[in-house]
Amino acid sequence: MKKLLIIICTSSFLFSIEGIIIFNDQTTIEGNINGIEKNSVYITPVGLTFPEQILLENIDSLKINDGTIPIAGGEVLLLYQNGEFFSPKKPGTNNQSDLSQFVIEYVIVPNWSLNLYTGYPIIKGATFKDFDDSSPVYGLSIGSPYGFFAGDFFMNAIAEIAYYDHGVTTDPDTSFGGFCYQLGLSPGFFIGNTSYSVTACTGFYRDDARKFSSGFIAGGSIDIPVGQMVLKHFSNVEIFKSLNDLFDQFTDFKILEGVKVKDYRENLEAFEMRITTRSNLIEKVDGMTYWIGAGFSFGYEF
After folding, report:
1. Which tens digits make up the pLDDT trace of 50-91?
2. In terms of Cα–Cα distance, which of 119, 142, 170 is closest to 291?
3. pLDDT: which is higher, 294 or 240
4. pLDDT tens for residues 130-175?
């Protein structure tokens, strides 16, 4: 029995790969993947020593840190044994030439995200045209892992802080805007690696008297996976490997002991750019006004 335990532990260290399991309820567990079978996955969770068996019926997807997705939608696409992937249709063989058809480059993993946004009014309502000295709109959006995730569809809760300041050329003392604070939802879906999402928010906005007023913001975005594009064309560039070594050095400090730094591939994959358009309906002292803006944002998923 003792020898058997030693063999199990040794093989798990030799042939394990880092990955993350996403369960059907969208909770996750991260650790070393020791084996993938047709009905279960063996994983050694972070902080533990021995592998645990997770039944396939409880798993939605499995993502390996190199971007490979052996399980998606509850279906096993790739088996993993003794350090090798192979098709479940041809067990016991290393079908490297067939792996490309099973590699899915993106899977929805509920997480936190940050997006820095900037845009500019391009269509102005009649009640907005008096503010002819428009400035860019800036915003910080925080996406949460709380919401609904199913297949290629997602809808999560978001919070935003934005700043706008529109003035009147003939009267510099007249302005409309300031900091605003809003909450909302962001539903969307994936087509391949690109996601298309909608933002709907309401909250507290600054009017032309510099007081808080009501309002509503709605818009749409196209997420471009810039990080994945960089990896695809420049993954062998030495600077990325050097950056990963640099990040690892910081974990030696006592204050960061136990902190795990993502591999440089994961860091780049988490970086996205969004092309965004937004309609803004904000209350003024004498009524409502609106404008439609267009811009872009850069985001990062944690």
Report:
1. 788 899 999 988 988 777 889 988 889 889 988 888 888 654
2. 119
3. 294
4. 888 888 999 999 999 888 877 678 899 999 999 999 988 888 778 8
Domain boundaries, the chain: 2-101, 113-227+262-301
Percent of the chain with pLDDT over 90: 30
Query: Does this chain's domain 2-101 share its CATH topology with 113-227+262-301?
Result: no
The residues near 239 (Cβ < 8 Å, ≥ 6 apart) are none
**253 contact partners, CB below 8 Å, separation of at least 6:** none
The CATH topology of domain 2-101 is SH3 type barrels. (2.30.30)
Question: Which fold would CATH assign to domain 113-227+262-301?
Answer: Porin (2.40.160)
Structure-block tokens of residue 44: 């050694």
